[in-house]
Amino acid sequence: MTTSNGFLNGRVALVTGGSRGIGAATALRLAREGADVALTYVNDKSAAEDVVRSVEALGRRAVALRADSADAEEAAGAVARTAEAFGGRLDVLVNNVGVGLLGPLENLSLADVDRVLAVNVRGVFLTSQAAASRMGPGGRIITVGTCMTQRVPGPGGTLYAMSKSALTGLTKALARELGGRGITANIVHPGPIDTDMNPADGPFAAGQAGMTAFGRFGRAEEVASTVAHLAGADYVTGAEFSVDGGHAA
Ligand SMILES: NC(=O)c1ccc[n+]([C@@H]2O[C@H](COP(=O)([O-])OP(=O)(O)OC[C@H]3O[C@@H](n4cnc5c(N)ncnc54)[C@H](OP(=O)(O)O)[C@@H]3O)[C@@H](O)[C@H]2O)c1
């Protein structure tokens, strides 16, 4: 379902990790609903620029920002750079960026732990903190978690599930802290979604698909539509939404 009624007209959104996968689909969906969009990336400039051109083709403004979420200054700085690009405002933050490092507990190094926590937790905290300081009433913070915070289907997920579970606590606490200013915070938990991180033809795909009620991977656009809904929702905060094809059922 990709029809638009322009309910985000005049809003400015920042989507972290918006050059591919769920982030790219979200950037496009928010633009289709009327938002101007900044997106961050770290490696693939040309993919980020492709998303910018696609947003512009929808008649919205877009900017690609190279900002490594593992770097504290860059994670927070993306917010100021977004505001600079779009007249000083930020209305919607989508904390999409995440790294999906899976592996046996005994194989995970200290460097792995630090890297995953820096991107999946510290970066999300710092970007959210910076965004909250800019947002006015109507601000929206939407974070991308994972179905593995609700059901861990097998071994290998300790670090990833731990990191993403922190985001549920962050979301609920942000909802309480920012509610009085008219800012909402919610979290979306995707199931297996066909992206570069987790391709639907990858070696572990059949097992993941089989754990959903539909027996298939989801599409990035199916996550993006829920994110867009939350960007426009007024009386929803501190909530968790599964977009997982029944993975947690
Ligand atoms: N796919 C799934 O099955 C699934 C399921 C549950 C949850 N999720 C979550 O959904 C989110 C998006 O996943 P995805 O599957 O769309 O991932 P993806 O295909 O790997 O895309 C990741 C995006 O994040 C950017 N990125 C990676 N590291 C970054 C960093 N340190 N700083 C800034 N940007 C960075 C990438 O940009 P570059 O190209 O420049 O690196 C890219 O735009 C993640 O939080 C993931 O944990 C995914």
Automatic annotation (TrEMBL):
Residues 11-196 form the Ketoreductase domain. Coiled coil: none annotated. Belongs to the short-chain dehydrogenases/reductases (SDR) family. It comes from the Bacteria. This is SDR family oxidoreductase. The keyword Oxidoreductase applies. The keyword Protease does not apply.
